[in-house]
Amino acid sequence: MSSAQAEDEQDYETPSCYELQKHFTHGGVAYTHVNEVWPGVYIGNEETARDRYKLQTLGITHILNAAEGEWNSVDTGAEYYKDMQIHYYGVTAEDTPTFNISQYFYSAAEYIQQTLSDPHNKLLLHCVMGRSRSATLFLAFLMLQQRMSLLQAVEQLAHRRHICPNWGFLKQLRELDTHLQEERRRTHT
After folding, report:
1. d(Cα 162, Cα 172) in Å, to the nearest integer?
2. 27 or 141: whose pLDDT is higher?
3. To which CATH superfamily is domain 36-176 assigned?
4. What residues make up the catalytic site?
5. How many Cβ atoms sit within 10 Å of the Cβ of residue 52?
6. How far apart are CA 128 and CA 33, in angstroms?
7. Is pTM beyond 0.85 here?
8. Which is catalytic among the residues 60, 109, 112, 127?
9. What residue numbers does the annotated binding site for substrate cover?
10. Tens digit of each residue's pLDDT (9 = 90 or more) over 103-162
11. Which of 16, 49, 96, 175 gets the most CB atoms within 10 Å of its CB?
């Protein structure tokens, strides 16, 4: 790491939720059913998750459903993809500001990282709209596995997909960012 990068990391402050939301509206990406947001990673909505032909066309080998559950969910499950040879991982998360999605940050990031360890794999990360729960988990992946700050992760994703994590999820991502930045500062001093 260069001294300029180290200085930038030391000067970095986690942006407010309001500041982060400004990046969502300035990304300039129109809302679509699915977007490739990282090599081999697609974020999409329920329609994409249920479109077996589209999944085959995209070459999807793995699915992370960030909307399992009984309320505002996508109830596909592993059975839905059984005959397609798609590896399925589901997260029971509600898209409400009070829901603790941070409990899935590390496990989802690990699943994404394991999926991407084979360059032939392609992952669809989805929720109902592909804008809040799935985006939040992918932002956590970028922060945890790619060592991005929250701001870097938001900028990376917002230029590839129209996202809008709810206010509570943004607060949890901010807490993760603060924790990771403190941890990185400790290891560099």
Report:
1. 20
2. 141
3. Protein tyrosine phosphatase superfamily (3.90.190.10)
4. 127
5. 14
6. 10
7. yes
8. 127
9. 126-133
10. 999 999 999 999 999 999 999 999 999 999 999 999 999 999 999 999 999 999 999 999
11. 49
